[in-house]
Design brief:
This protein is α/β, with parallel strands linked by helices. The chain is built from nine helices and eleven strands. The protein has two domains: 198 residues, FAD/NAD(P)-binding domain, CATH 3.50.50.60; 37 residues, no CATH class. A hairpin with a 2-residue loop joins strand 10 and strand 11. The protein is globular, with a radius of gyration of 24 Å. 23% of the residues are buried. The N terminus and C terminus are likely disordered. It binds flavin-adenine dinucleotide. Flavin-adenine dinucleotide (FAD) binds next to helix 3 and strand 2.
Length: 309
Amino acid sequence: MLGVLWRGKEPLAVLWGAVKIVCRNYGSWSHNLDFDVVVVGGGHAGIEAAAAASRVGSRVVLITQKLSTIGEMSCNPSFGGIGKGHLMREIDALDGLCAKICDKSAIQFRVLNRSKGPAVWGIRAQIDRDMYKKNMQDVVSSTPGLEMMEDSVEDIMLQPSSSCQRVAGVHLASGKSLKCKAVVITTGTFLNGKIYIGLESFPAGRRGDAPSIALASVLDDAGFLLRRLKTGTPPRIDERTVDFRYLERQFGDKPPIPFSFLNLKDGFQVHFVFALLLGAWTCTTGFPIVCFACVSVCPIFPPHKTHTC
Ligand SMILES: Cc1cc2nc3c(=O)[nH]c(=O)nc-3n(C[C@H](O)[C@H](O)[C@H](O)COP(=O)(O)OP(=O)(O)OC[C@H]3O[C@@H](n4cnc5c(N)ncnc54)[C@H](O)[C@@H]3O)c2cc1C
């Protein structure tokens, strides 16, 4: 290698060139690049996918364009609400990370739709975005069996199997290739992403981030139907232009109801265990049963320590 580099250059320049080559390839030389699962994207979905795969003992690598944006909240500084709050709790029931990190990083908790029945209540929390990102990055980087890599997945390796093509690995923008048994794609708004501002439009994953174009065309060539969903950011209002005397103050709940079941007090935990047992009963017998007393009593009177069905 040094011979190729030499070609009449100064010894220091040669040494510097060799150091650069070693640094560039250190990752591939020092790592075994075979994984069970490759997760593409370090947004909310990618984090949960990578953590879940590592919890069941898989060797996982989370590849994302910028390690510093792992756990980034793209838009609103809030989590949950009607529908999404339920989804977060379902993920929490599978030992997911989002609810627990929200509880650690929240500024205000408030249950929406309280005027209606408990089945349609939506837990929502205002979050400190920087704290959320930091707490999430701390957890992800210390998850056993989960490696993180800053790169962009540009292509998927396929190999013929008996009746179809199987995933065999991924090719990265840096030139590296990784072998794996499964690829999870969680590219969010980045896949062939576009930003529209007024009449202007330009390719972007999110403001300040590059879109994922190469991977989109690979998926297109593989026969997947690609469509873009719209997400919108409401206009920001300059607080100096608002007369707060005419607005109603919305305080957080006291006591706050956290997202994660692990952080709930006794009455709620009892309710959750019942819900799990009823779910297990439904799955094993095929006959759904609903305990109406349990559904209504526990959430309405949280201090209840026990409940008899
Ligand atoms: C301006 C804006 C406003 C939004 N407002 C809301 C809102 O109010 N409510 C709401 O629920 N949602 C909103 N969204 C949508 C929001 O993006 C999603 O709800 C959420 O972030 C999706 O999470 P995700 O994990 O699927 O993807 P994302 O959070 O988008 O993360 C995708 C990740 O994949 C990485 N990536 C992409 N391509 C590659 C590649 N080829 N190789 C490696 N890494 C790659 C990216 O770097 C990124 O880290 C908004 C989005 C934007 C941009």
